[in-house]
Amino acid sequence: MKFTDEQRLIVYMLSGVQQALKVQNELDPEFIQRVTARGDEWAILEKYPWLDQDGGDAPEFVVETRAILQAFRVVYRSLENLSEADLERVQSGTGRHVLVFDGFDGNNEADHYGAADLITKDAGRWPEFASLAVNSHHPTLHRYRVILDAVSEYQSANPGGLLSADQLIGVVDRVRQAQPD
After folding, report:
1. CA-based nearest residue to 108, from 134, 148, 137
2. Is the Cβ–Cβ distance between 122 and 35 less than 8 Å?
3. CA distances to 33, 50, 61, 128 from 125, in Å
4. Which domains occur in the chain, in start order?
5. DSSP strand E in the chain: where?
6. pLDDT tens across 51-110, in order?
7. DSSP H or E run through 122
8. Coil, strand or helix: which one is 90?
9. In which element (H, E) is residue 71 found?
10. Which of 22, 47, 173, 180 is the most exposed place for a label (fewest CB within 10 A)?
11. Is the pTM of this model over 0.85?
């Protein structure tokens, strides 16, 4: 969803009228005003996907942020379902730090940072990451993209399934190999 300037003004004003008249419905006028004023109309469909009648396209950084959050959901749920011995095996060495979602760098990954904040906090999707969608103060996208690729590859054979300890170790190894020298 992308508004013209005229549409943005109309939506902003109508949500203000809804708020002033205290009209109660499923739409949050404060949220709509906030994202409309910032030009983040895509976030309206994140919070209210039932409004998406024409399959509106979100910006690429939003699509990638969603995919990263989903990959970390798979990683975290997979870790939760491991035995203690397998968990220790996965988290030995740098594995403990590699498989952690640290947020995004607010300076150099601002689009992803803003998208994660809107998606998790305002739109309520991936709520388990709402407290983690913070400014990492260091670049994270390179590592997240490697994790996303590895998780996607492992899940291609078992869509929606959890990863095994060996697969999680494979994710960690791929991140280690991809680190710049």
Report:
1. 137
2. yes
3. 19, 14, 16, 9
4. 5-51 (no CATH), 60-178 (1.10.3190.10)
5. none
6. 876 666 788 999 999 999 999 999 999 999 999 999 999 988 777 789 999 999 999 999
7. none
8. helix
9. helix 60-80
10. 180
11. no
For tokens 């399934």, name the residue: 161
Residue 72 burial (CB < 10 Å; 0-12/13-18/19+)?
buried
CA angle 4/5/11 to nearest 5° reads 85
Which helix (H) or strand (E) element contains residue 49?
none
**Which residue's structure tokens are 């906030």?**
34
Alpha-carbon distance of 164 to 180, in angstroms, equals 27
Ramachandran assignment for 22, one of left (phi > 0), alpha (psi -120 to 50 degrees), beta (any other): left
From residue 152, give the alpha-carbon distance in Å to each of 64, 70, 181.
Answer: 12, 10, 25
> What b/e readout covers 92-128, taking b as 16+ CB neighbours within 10 angstroms?
eeebeebbebebbbeeebeebbbbbbbbbebbebbee
Question: What is the enclosing helix (H) or strand (E) of 67?
Answer: helix 60-80
CA 121 to chain CA centroid, nearest Å = 10
